[in-house]
Amino acid sequence: MKNRRDFLKGAATGALVLGTGSKLGLAGMLDSKTEAAKSKVVVARDAALHGSDGTLDEKRVQALLDRAIASYTGHEKPIDAWKRIVPVGKVIGLKVNGLGGKGISTHAALVMAVCERLQQAGVKAGEIIVWDRNARDIEACGLTINTDASRVRVYGNDVAGYEEQGVAFGSAMDVKLAKILTRECAMVINLPILKDHELAGVTFSMKNMYGVVQKPFELHAGGCNPSVADLNCIPAIREKVRFTIGDAISSVYNGGPGFHPEHLWQPNALIVGEDRVAVDHTAWQMIERKRAEVGMPTLDAAKRPPRYIATAADQAHNLGVNDPQRIHLMEV
Amino acid sequence: MKFKLNYKWAVAAIVMVAVSAGTGCKHKVSDPFPATDAVSGWQKTSETRTYVAKDLWQYIDGDAEQYISAGVVSTSTSDYKHQGQLEATVDVYTMGDAAGARKILETGQTNGAKAMQLGDAGITYAQSIVFRKGTALVRIVAYESTPDTQQALLALAQGVEAKL
To answer: Which chain B residues are closer than 8 Å to A254 by Cβ?
Structure first.
């Protein structure tokens, strides 16, 4: 695996564009259901992801990603697995989350590992857009802005702008979506980072979509419920954001979404799945377990349970399942 | 009569403008962010960015509400680096009154916080310092924990406090 410097150099020159002759068309549905009506979620862990000095081991991140994707798809070879996940010849968006600043943002090592595998699966460098709200958020992830379409593109909504025409679903009214989502991406892979959230309780897969709207603060009422669920029902989000590779390499179990190092912990995990509700339910339980471990009250007791997760699973939204009996959880 | 009334209002307006302009000229613009090397070993690595209350979500969306409910007027932030390695961010929240700063400091305090003497009151953790002075609430966060982190943060915090 290339190290970060090599990757950036390769991305800059286009040298990482591999497998351009892929014969695959659009990938079909993933083989994610082990039993009828069950949603598969993979939690892949590596306790040695951080070295003894606290530095993140990029090679181990790549290996962890490969293990997570192999477990999810049933394909041992990473490239075969990725060919099942992404369409070739289409623009793939990677929605990261850098809102919390340098200390608690989607890790660059994970982003680069995904970019590398995408290119090996036949996606051209210029067909990948890594994006978030703005340059500050992107730089907080440790990434560098690039708008050159011959390389992996990395920029924010502050560059590409928002649609002038609003869209709506329920409480999410007159929402101006990011043009990167509406006009550029055929498919989005969601790369949120796991955090406690002062208003919503937990922020992970569905809540990360607040970064694709112009005025996310208008969706904060009622602990972001039902707004998170409503927002994810807007067709461009529901249909294009099809896969989550959630970053639980580091997390904050209290005080989020900002960086509070006193509440930082390292689950050293990735949470992967198509069912955004099942992914969020799994992530929520991870936060609750950590809070219990350190003697903190549950999010319910703290008066900020992530109610939007159940809302997203209800009949009106039907975004996925939150019933543990209907989630096939694989811990690898 | 009408003319006299308008004339009086005009004179009053001129006086008010003159007084406020004079006050403005004498008012010292406060910049609490130490310049590079003003505090030993610390380099200011970014421009100071300021957000008024209504735009605070652009900086800390999801966290902004608690500051707004406590009466934040504006927030300024800047990045620093200590001896070319340890990165930190300094946030200065200017609240409407001292009670707002006290509220944020007290509600944000959790297990593991140690009280410290800085400004009117302060707390410290392994990688962060929060203190208040008057209407200012200051939060300084380091992005890694080294043997020198706490001492370096304290020096930077004292540098900020001296400029408030």
So the answer is: 110
| CATH fourth-level superfamily of A36-331 | LarA, N-terminal domain (3.40.50.11440)
Residues of chain A with pLDDT under 50: 1-34
What pLDDT score was predicted for residue A26? 23
Q: Any idea which architecture B30-163 has in CATH?
A: 3-Layer(aba) Sandwich (3.40)
CB-based contacts of A322: which residues, under 8 Å, 6+ apart? A277, A278, A280, A281, A309, A310, A312, A313
Contacts with A263 from chain B: Cβ below 8 Å: 110
pTM summary value: 0.86
For residue B139, the chain A residue with the least C-alpha distance is A260
Buried b (16+ CB within 10 A) or exposed e, A106-125: bbbbbbbbbbbbbbbbbbbb
> What confidence score (pLDDT) does residue B6 get?
58
Q: Which of A217, A259, A260 sits opposite B64 (nearest CB)?
A: A217
Nearest by CB: A103 against B62, B110, B141:
B141
- The band of B109, judged by pLDDT with boundaries at 50, 70 and 90, is confident
Chain A residues touching B143 at Cβ < 8 A: 102-103, 259, 261
